[in-house]
Amino acid sequence: MKVAIITDTHWCARKSSKVFQDYFELFYKNVFFPTLEQYGITTVIHMGDAFDSRKSIDLSGLEWTKRVVLEPLSKYDVTLITGNHDCALKNSNRINSPDLLLKEYKNIKTYSEPTEINIGGLDILLLPWINQENQENEEKTFKLIEKTTSKCAMGHLELAGFRVNKQIVMEHGLESKLFAKFSKVFSGHYHTRSTDGKVFYLGNPYEMFWGDVKDDRGFTIFDTETRDVKDDRGFTIFDTETLEHTPINNPNRLFYNIYYNNNNYQTFDTREYENKIVKVIVRKKDDPGKFDKFIDKLYASNISELKIVETFDILESNDCELDESEDTLTILNKYL
């Protein structure tokens, strides 16, 4: 049986910005749901961080989520575990947005505690966010990991040694050897795909921060040891019989770096930057007038947002305001 695994969707992200909503919608309408139909998939597993804000919900964002995602999803059987962004309290999963906001959807089963389930004949151990400040939560999780006979675990895990994004490898967290008994472990939480051969971080469906930007200089970074593909995002098709999984990539982009090196503004094609967030990184600018015309041409292409960087020094960023309720991982993603 083939099922779809998706994680870290962060509905209502960036204060339900229309730019982000329109970009996210491209994924659901043109990639996610058409692929489910193509493969004849009837079951979806969501591995946490369904919603973005820990403390509140934006009404326009909730309307968008229902219309674009939840209503089309209503004909599928959905298993959803809580991630750290879904929980209002940092030391408890008890108050969480999926439980509170998805009750009307009878096809969605939510799990905020570690639980063993069976999908397609395969026993799976679900591991929602582990609250390290809550000893009871940790003990229950570790005991179930020790006693389970499930071949596969799916969770929202914070493990050391895996990539948070292209720049950062997480140095703290649980050790992956804790999951040595499983044939495969899938996890959300980190937005970049990476693996050690046993544990697979599947990555989130779409770009959300500048750290997610693809490299525009003509190559993809691939690590043959860790099998890291640092740019691609999307979701995963998983076969419960063979335990094989296939990444389905999202071809849509939102963030673009443009490296200016005395580019000819007259021949520069700006069409792909419409409604995109663009950063121009100046390498060489001999003629300020021609550079101004280059920038004017970008603005005329109806870009959503433009930043110009003319120094390699670290500058104070006004991309977003610091939110003390956000976890360290989110703050790192936003500011690095």
The CATH architecture classification of the largest domain is: 4-Layer Sandwich
Q: Largest sheet, order of strands side by side?
A: 6-3-2-1-15-16
Strand content: 25-35%
For the report, how would you describe the main beta sheet? 6 strands, mixed
CATH topology descriptor of the largest domain:
Purple Acid Phosphatase, chain A, domain 2
Order of helices and strands: EHHEHEEEHEEEHEEEEEEEEEEHEH
Rg over CA atoms, rounded to whole Å, is: 21 Å
Number of helices, where a helix is a run of at least 4 consecutive DSSP H or I residues: 7
CATH-defined superfamily of the largest domain: Metallo-dependent phosphatases
Q: Report the structural category.
A: alpha/beta
* Distance N to C terminus: 40 Å
Total count of domains: 2
Number of DSSP E strands = 19
User: What would the average pLDDT be, to the nearest integer?
Assistant: 90
Low-confidence stretches: 216-230, 313-318
CATH class of the largest domain: Alpha Beta
What percent of the residues sit in helical stretches (DSSP H or I)?
10-25%
* Large-scale geometry: globular
Short précis:
With 336 residues, this protein is α/β, with parallel strands linked by helices.
Q: How would you describe what is shown here?
A:
The protein has two domains: 2-249, Metallo-dependent phosphatases (Purple Acid Phosphatase, chain A, domain 2, 4-Layer Sandwich), CATH 3.60.21.10; 255-336, no CATH class. The protein starts with a strand and ends with a helix. Helices cover 24% and strands 26% of the residues. By secondary structure, the chain is an alpha/beta fold. A hairpin with a 4-residue loop joins strand 13 and strand 14 (228-229). A six-stranded mixed β-sheet has the order 6-3-2-1-15-16. It has a six-stranded mixed β-sheet with strand order 7-8-9-10-12-11, covered by helices on one side.
